[in-house]
């Protein structure tokens, strides 16, 4: 919701401030909404970085960034200002009520996979033992994932 490009830019800046570098950012992609269809198109971007934080501490930091950017509690897959998901965390496998890594919908969402291909196409999912590229090739998500024509520096 709101200024999608500005939310991505601000989230990127906050990630850099909290975790430092180096971090890599994929190009920005625009996609139809996944889940709840009656909402605006999404902007999606992947980030790859390093942290010494435990996955649960890292999750709290990501939720803190969402909160600082004005994210309010919304229905699942509904409109929101920003959504930061942890897709992979090294090669960890975590399955609790608070955190699931790798992300449980990874294999169903081209809007997650396409930006990851730009950064880590050969990263191996520790559960399926397939690369990100292989998972993308097998994904049956019919929604288009298009490069977004940016009006700001959100992808740089």
**Uncertain segments:** none
What distance separates the N and C termini? Answer: 22 Å
CATH architecture: 2-Layer Sandwich
CATH class: Alpha Beta
Number of helices: 4
Strand content: 5-15%
Annotate the secondary structure layout.
Blueprint: H1 4-19, E1 23-25, E2 29-31, E3 42-44, E4 47-49, H2 55-68, E5 94-95, E6 100-101, H3 110-119, H4 132-138, E7 145-147
Antiparallel strand pairs: 1-4, 2-3, 2-7, 5-6
Overall description:
With 156 residues, this protein is α+β, with helices and mostly antiparallel strands. The protein has one domain: 7,8-Dihydro-6-hydroxymethylpterin-pyrophosphokinase HPPK (Alpha-Beta Plaits, 2-Layer Sandwich). The chain is 30% helix and 12% strand. It is built from 4 helices and 7 strands, in the order H-E-E-E-E-H-E-E-H-H-E. Strands 3-2-7 form a 3-stranded antiparallel beta sheet, with helices on both faces. A two-stranded antiparallel sheet has the order 1-4. Strand 5 and strand 6 form a beta hairpin. Helix 1 crosses helix 2 and helix 3 packs antiparallel against helix 4. The protein is globular, with a radius of gyration of 15 Å. The mean pLDDT is 87.
């Amino acid at each position: 919701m709101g200024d999608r490009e500005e939310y991505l830019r601000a989230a990127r800046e906050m990630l850099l401030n909290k975790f430092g570098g180096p971090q890599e950012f994929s190009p920005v992609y625009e996609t139809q909404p996944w889940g709840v269809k009656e909402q605006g198109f999404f902007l999606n971007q992947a980030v790859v970085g390093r942290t010494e934080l435990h996955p649960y501490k890292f999750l709290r930091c990501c939720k803190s960034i969402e909160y600082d950017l004005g994210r309010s509690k919304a229905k699942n897959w509904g409109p929101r200002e920003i959504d930061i998901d942890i897709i992979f965390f090294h090669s960890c496998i975590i399955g609790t009520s608070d955190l699931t890594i790798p992300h449980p919908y990874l294999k169903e969402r081209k809007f997650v996979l396409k930006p990851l291909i730009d950064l880590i196409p050969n990263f191996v999912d520790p559960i399926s033992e397939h690369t990100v590229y292989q998972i993308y090739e097998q994904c049956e998500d019919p929604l288009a994932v298009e490069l977004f024509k940016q009006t700001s520096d959100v992808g740089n």
